[in-house]
Structures are given as C-alpha cells and as structure tokens.
Design goal:
Layout lengths: L1 H10 L4 E4 L4 H10 L8 H7 L2 E4 L6 H10 L8 E4 L10 H5 L3 E7 L8 H5 L4 E5 L5 H10 L3 E4 L5 H28 L5 H19 L7 H4 L2 H14 L4 H17 L5 H11 L54 E3 L8
Parallel strand pairs: 2-3, 3-4, 5-6
Antiparallel strand pairs: 1-7, 2-7, 4-5
Helix pairs in contact: 11-13, 12-13
InterPro entries: 6-PGluconate_DH-like_C_sf (IPR008927), DUF2520 (IPR018931), NAD(P)-bd_dom_sf (IPR036291), OxRdtase/DH_put_Rossmann_dom (IPR019665), TM1727-like_C_sf (IPR037108)
Protein name: Oxidoreductase
Pfam family, one: Rossmann-like
Length: about 325
C-alpha cells in the first residue's frame, strides 16, 4: 500500500523523499512505483519527510509508533499517517505527545503491489479518523489521492474494519473454494463461468441488499441443499462447515425478509442441522433446534497492506515486519520542506 499511496500523492504534486524497505519484495515494489527514491532506515525517513506514511500490519503498528517516538525520530509539526483499518488516531498518541499531527487514513481497497493500485485509488473510499483541527488536512490528502473520505468515529474503527474484512477477505475464500469445486466438477474455465455470475450477484446485493438473495436456500429447496451437502462431504469435506454456516445465515436473513416461506423452512433447517461426521452442527438461529443468531508490510511509508487479495485489509499478508516498506513524502502541499 505504501508505494501506491506515495505514487498517488506524487501525481498530486508531492515530492517523495525516502522509503524504508527490508524484504526483496518490498524493495521491488518501491523500485517499481517509486523509482530513484532512496531506500533508508525508518528513522531517516522521518528525518527527511514532513508527511510520513506508516503502512504496517495492524499488530505491528503500536510498537512501531512507540519505538519511533521513544528514539526521538518524530518531529513537532510532522504529519504522521497510518493506514490501519482497525485503529483510529489513539494509536498515534506517542507520536502526538512528541508534537506530531496524527491522521488515520484507511483505503477500502485491495492492493497488488503493482501500478494498477494507483489507478484503483480513483473513487476509492477512505475510512478517515482525525482530530477536529486536522479534518481539513485529512480530507485534502484523500481527495489528492483521488479518494472519497468517509468519517469513522474512533470507537467505531474495529467494527468498520470487521465489516470490510467480512466482505472482502471472506469473498476471496468463497470464490477460491467455488473455483476449486468447479474444477473438480470438470469445468475448464471456472473463472470465466464465475465472473459474470458473481459480478451480477455483487451488483444486485449492493443495489438491493437481502432482496437480492436467490438460490436453493432462499427458495427453501431442502432436497437440493441436502444434495449439496452430500457432494461436498464426498469431494471437499473441508468446505462443509463454511457451506453450512453461510447457508444457515442465508436462511435466517431470507426468513427475516419474507423471502423464505416459513412452511418450507422446517425441512431446510433440518438439513442444515444434520450433524457432520466430524462434529454435530445445530440448526439455524432463532428456530427449533437452532443456535443463537450470528449476530500494511512496512514501516514509515511502507509496502502493501492487509485488507485484501492478492496482497484484503483491514490484501497476502505483508512480508515485512516493523521497519519495512514504502515512502515518506513531503508536506501536504508538496513543497520542498
């Protein structure tokens, strides 16, 4: 994520001055998106830049911020921006106490580590958290990158990030499993088959929400669902638990929205409650026999983030720990400070 954001800011007139990268993959990404920008230690990035991007994995961020503040690397008046979806600006308190200006700017996008990432930022929503006095600065940076700011309250950041992970990260798992099953069924080009179908399903869901539900669960076709479960147990037992969990949730939502007829739900829920050979699995929420309702790598200005494939979020996991990754840039106006 780091090189992509810095490259985008450079297009807006900022001047990247340094990048920190440890792994070969991070160095390649920096070289591809930020050619001729020197790769230095994290402290040197902060020494050169008025605007610093911290694009490390969520769990690495608190320790990184504390370490940078304790070593005196943070300067008063320096903009310190992290891109974690989980955290707001509270995680930057050690830097703020050292005089830094804290911002949380999380692009709701998956990153590949290639130039296509810069293009994808156009129109991308950013989850933004900032002190009141820095809201205009945060908004300006997002707009300069071609994004759309969406203000997220500090206490709502974990829920916001969970929502994105539920949609984006789990989607990758579902699609990958679907493609594997289609190959086992003899489909030569599962991606070509799924592309139009999933594209239409996503469009319908974004437009209509639960009203877009289709398929055997929403229809109450218990026999078809039973056949699915039997075939999955035979050919892909590792997918059964996920299929049953998603089918129960789908049944709950279809019932709640009047799509699944109650008189058809009993047989369906009986199928979904059928115990697997490995472990018993109860039925759907709120109904007889059912369970309760289911209710970036790098350092200063670093490499890819974690919210999505194929790195995704809050993207493969980043390959570097603290002290790796992408760019530091100069201040909000792109001057030579």
């Amino acid at each position: 994520m780091g090189p992509a954001l810095a490259a985008s800011l450079r297009l807006a007139g900022h001047r990247p001055v340094a990048v920190s990268a440890v792994s070969d993959a991070s160095r390649r990404r920096a070289a591809a998106l930020l050619p001729e920008i020197p790769v230095v230690e994290p402290a040197q990035v902060l020494a050169r830049a008025d605007l610093v991007l911290l694009t490390v994995p969520d769990d690495a961020l608190p320790g990184l911020v504390e370490g940078l503040a304790e070593t005196g690397a943070v300067r008063p008046g320096q903009l310190i921006v992290h891109t974690s979806g989980r955290y707001g600006v509270g995680v930057l308190d050690p830097a703020r106490r050292a005089g830094a200006l804290p911002l949380a700017l999380h692009p709701a996008m998956t990153f590949t580590g290639t130039a296509v990432d810069v293009q994808r930022l156009a129109g991308c929503s950013f989850g933004v958290t900032a002190p009141e006095e820095l809201r205009l600065a945060a908004e300006a940076l997002v707009i300069e990158m071609g994004g759309e700011p969406e203000w997220i309250a500090e206490q709502a950041r974990p829920l916001y990030h969970a929502a994105l992970a539920l949609g984006a990260n789990h989607l990758v798992t579902l699609v990958a499993q679907s493609m594997e099953l289609l190959r086992k069924a003899g489909v030569a080009a599962p991606d070509r088959m799924l592309g139009p179908l999933l594209g239409a399903a996503l469009d319908n869901a974004l437009r209509s929400g639960d009203a877009a539900l289709t398929g055997p669960v929403a229809r109450g076709d218990a026999g078809t669902v039973a056949a699915h479960v039997a075939e999955l147990r035979k050919h892909a037992p590792g997918t059964v638990a996920g299929y049953l969990a998603m089918a129960r949730t789908t049944a709950d939502r279809a019932l709640a929205h009047g799509l699944l007829k109650p008189e058809l739900a009993e047989d369906l829920l009986g199928v979904l409650a059928e115990p697997s050979p490995a472990a018993p699995r109860p039925g759907a929420a709120g109904l007889p026999g059912g369970p309760a309702a289911p209710g970036t790598s790098g350092a200063p200005g670093t490499g890819p983030a974690h919210d999505g494939p194929p790195e995704s979020d809050d993207a493969p996991r980043p390959d570097d720990g603290p002290g790796t990754g992408g760019p530091g840039t100069d201040g909000p106006r792109g001057d030579d400070r």
